[in-house]
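Holo model, fe (iii) ion. Inputs:
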Amino acid sequence: MSHVPAVGAASDLGNTGDDYWKPLFAGFEVSRKWIAERCPDVVVLVYNDHATAFDLNLVPTFAIACGEEFEIADEGWGRRPVPNVRGAPDLAWHVRQAVIEDGFDLTSVGNVPVDHGLTVPLTVMFDRPDAWPVRVVPLAVNVIVYPPPSGQRCYALGKAIRRAVESFDEDLDVQVWGTGGMSHQLQGPRAGLINSEFDARFLDGMVHDPEGLARIPHIEYMRDAGSEGIELVMWLVMRGALDARVREVHRHYHVPASNTAFGHLILENGP
Ligand code: DHB
Ligand code: FE
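Output:
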C-alpha cells in the first residue's frame, strides 16, 4: 500500500470523516476486518526511509532492522501520536543470516527511528490502537538515491525472505507488506503527476504477472509513474514472498491523496 504522510496526519487529527478523506478511509474498512480476523504475529514491513534514519552519509540499498523497539521519528512537525513499534529480533536475526547466506548482502541496523514510510501503513491497517497488535521487522529499501535496486532484485529478495521465514524454528504467522507508491512526483516541473492507467496495470500485474512487472526498468517508472513512483519496486519484495498464484482479497485505489495516487492491495496465497 501507499504511505502518503497526509493519511497519517488525517488519522492523527481526527479528519478521516471529512469529505476529502472519507472515500479513501472507507476503502480501509475491509482491510481492517480482514486483519482483525487473521492478525499475524509479525509483519516483515518493506518500506523506505525518507532521510530520517538514513541520510546521504549512509544509504543502504537493503537494510534489516533487528532492534527491539523503533521510535516514531519527528519528521519536522513533531512526532506522530502513535505507539512505538515493537521489533521481532529473533526472527530478524534469523532472516538476516538466511538472506545474506542466500546471496543478498543486507545491511544490519538496530533501533532505528521510523518515519511515515513505516507508520502510515500500520495506521491504514490498525487505525489507532494503544499498542500495535503486531511485531515488525523493518526491511528498508533505498529508493531515494539513484540507483535503487532493480525490480528483479526486489522480487528475488522477496523469495529469499520467504525461504528464510519458512526455515525459522518458531511457528509464527508472518505477513509481508510492500509499501510506497503509487504514481507520484513531489518536485520539479512534473510535480503532481498521477498516472492512473499505469497504476491499474501495476495492480493487475501484481496479481497476474509479477515477473512482467519485475522487468520494468527504472526509467519506465520515472517516465510513467513519476520520480517517486519508483517506490513501487518495494511491492515486488512482497509479491516475491507469495506463491506464483495468488487470490486478490481486496483492492482499493483512490485519487487524490495529497499529491499522490493511493493504492492498496491485499493478496493471499492460492488460486
Ligand atoms: C508524500 C510523501 C511521500 O513519501 C510519498 O511516498 C507520497 C506522498 C507527500 O509528501 O505528499
Ligand atoms: Fe514516500
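The pocket of 3,4-dihydroxybenzoic acid (ligand 1) is lined by residues 3-6, 50, 180, 184, 186, 228, 231, 258-260 (CB under 6 Å). Residues 63 and 107 are 4 Å apart (CA to CA).
Archived with the compound record.
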